[in-house]
Input
Amino acid sequence: MRLIAVDDVYYFQAEDKSTKVISAQGEALIRKTIKELFDELDPEQFWQVHRGTIVNLRAIERVDRDYRDQPLIVLKARPEPIAVRRTFAHLFKAM
Output
């Protein structure tokens, strides 16, 4: 067991009945659903961008657009881009 500061989290990804935490310290699994986490997190710091993904806004380097003109999140310290579902695209209109 280890503690992960919420400020160190880049994003949360649903994984079966658990949630994968991607942070500066690596990856870990917690026994909470994305919905449970979303209800507990600060909405000014964490946005849900997919049914199974919550992103820390402080971890975002930039927001690009994919071939369908949908937002694609590029993180500061992670190589993988994070696709934003159309349902949540409105959050990135100003970006």
Summary: The radius of gyration is 13 Å. Residues 34-40 form the longest helix (7 residues). Helices lie at 34-40.
